[in-house]
User: Fold Erythromycin esterase-like protein from Paenibacillus aceris.
Amino acid sequence: MNKNKNKHNSTNGNIQEAIVEQIKQQAVPLTTPQDLDALLEAIGDKKYVLLGEATHGTSEFYTLRTELTRKLIETKGFSFIAVEGDWPSCYEVNRYVKQYKDAKPNTREVLEGFNRWPTWMWANEEVGALVDWLKQHNADKPIEQRVGFYGLDVYSLWESLDEIERYLQEKGTPEQLALARSAFECFDSYDKEGQNYGVSAAFYGESCKDEVVKLLKELHAKRVRYDEDSEAALSAELNALVAVNAEDYYRTMVRHDAESWNIRDRHMTEALRRLAQHHGPDAKVIVWEHNTHIGDARATDMQADGMVNVGQLVREAHGEADVFAIGFGTYRGTVIAAKAWGEPVATMQVPAAQPGSWEELMHRAGAHDQILLLRKEDPVLGHEVLGHRAIGVVYRPAYERGNYVPSVMARRYDAFVHVDESHALRPLTIEKVLV
Assistant:
């Protein structure tokens, strides 16, 4: 028994050393923004660039994605940014950076619209810098060439219904407004709590599905463009899509965790498809989401649980030749997160990555920031399963072992950006407390 165990440990050690040596040979040091040009060259003419993050609260992930996003827009003509955020709040950002009539007056007021927990994901100084740059970039462009900013997520059920009703009061027909109010009234008794609706729909058959599906079909069939905000009808339709899929998400969530995840990621993929269609056949898309969404699920243990994600679905829809996914990770540092859902945010320590994990091997190859281009044909990185850290908005460092996703890295991503020591995100309005 001991001999077999020692042999196994020796084999693992040899594989790890081989990976470390490969990283040393292939990685590019990341010391200045110009070093990101290696990624631009690798991206080439691809139309879908998916930018991940290992946490929702690391400053470097946001600043590096911002710098890469700027380069993609300036040098390759990318059309819009789509993020893991709510459609209504992100659409206010879109209206601001495109200078639509009656948009909010400044970046801070726009970002304060992200008022649903976890607010810090988008209401932070790092996103503020991106929004400022987008507005400046768009300033002298004709409306059809201005770069947009949109949310793909599914959580804004009640906010989306509010936005639909507001839009239809100004632009809609009496029939459309009646459909919207019927949907709103159906959900109104659940006190804006998705879980309350989910329990009622899943166990008592009190569903609002018919109402929101009718509303979506009506808005899609009769979309109209308006000169003062050419995307107003698109926004109403996307809000209706949120309502349809949020209804499905909350109804499923109380019974099936894996299926509710799939509903969410399929919704984000469908929202992305409609946005790309709206921007035309030459549209080029930048997506900001967590690694667990943009890294191909088929290269992780998610597949065994019957789960899909945006990275997998976009690759399947558009072909791997037109999609480039970049994962981001860190060896150690600090992060903004909370100990439980809805609790106050705090700055937490991210401990050194566990031995044998992807992050630890990157650190062992060089204790500095670096970029590694990946090829799925690689005989080691395209086959070996490694633990890869994932931290959400809820984080408990004491239970660190459970934060690692078994991954075949060269099949999950096309490239990986490693930040050796990272720092917490800077929220706009939330006091940070070190714990």
Notes: Residues 152-256 form a domain with the Four Helix Bundle (Hemerythrin (Met), subunit A) fold (CATH 1.20.120).
